[in-house]
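Usage

Read records sequentially. Each one opens with the input sequence:
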Amino acid sequence: MRCWLFTLLLLLFGSSLAYGQQQYSEAACILLQQQIDRFSSQPQLSTYQDSKRQFDKHCQNPIAAPDKPLVLTNIPAKPAANSNAALPVAPASEKFDIGAMMLSLFTPYIPYIIGVLLLLILPGLLISLIFGNRARFLGAKAERQLYRLLVRDLPAVYKHYRNLILETAQGDLTEVDYLVLSPVGIFVIEVKNYQGGIVGSEHQPQWTVQHPRRKISFQNPLQQNLKHTAAVKFTLGIGMQDGKTVYSVVAFSDMAEFKTLLPAQVCNIPQVAAYIQQYTVPCFSDEQLRQFVAKLNLVAKNQRALRKAHFQQVRNRRKEH
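and closes with the structure output:
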């Protein structure tokens, strides 16, 4: 009986009109009628009742079988021997296109590939637009780290200034990376975000940062910071010979490792606060500190014009060399 029901269902659902028409085909209705006749003596059976219900509902106007013979394969019928009709010409085999095949394989993934490329390229573009180059971006990152640590670890009365363009006694301009104004002294900090081994000495003109496959030379930051400390003294009206109130500090990133013995004021960024905290004896009065703050705030307000002039100054020097 299961085999019989399976055959009936196959005819019902295999018909091309089974899903879209309310009436069954003639073949399906014949099978239903045979089911009804077979179990007519046992009307209480669900098989009889289901067959009767299906027949009454879907076999009132059964669909006639099509006159066209059913073609079970895609092989065209063989023409008669006496037919004068021309035989159909078989289409030429298409040429295999490896390029089209590869394109069809990768087309669904093109949006993802473009997204990945944008994620890789976009940060570099933003850095170029905002900072100009990667070196400035790394420098700004190191200065931001230093600012967070010093604000957290130093007393609240200490004043912090970043990227100040100051005038020197000679009339040119220079940029101070970081400045801390406190009762115990003024700390002029040169920030370096180099990664690798640092080799140099206090009086050596050029220092070297060592990488596994290359070496890069750069100006001795202690000598470089001498100009900055002089500019701070000139701006605030402090005597040029007074070295006990204005201190030079060089701060390297965490990724820098010192390969030679260097002075105590050369340290990594996390150690700068500890270096400043060792100075505990006040050297400025409250009135002096108020005057210094007023002068530095005035300079900070004029930074746009000073920065523009400093940029032009650096540009002119490069042209001369």
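Summary fields computed downstream for this record:
- Strands lie at 159-167, 173-182, 185-192, 196-199, 206-210, 215-219, 246-252, 256-258, 266-268.
- The longest strand covers residues 173-182.
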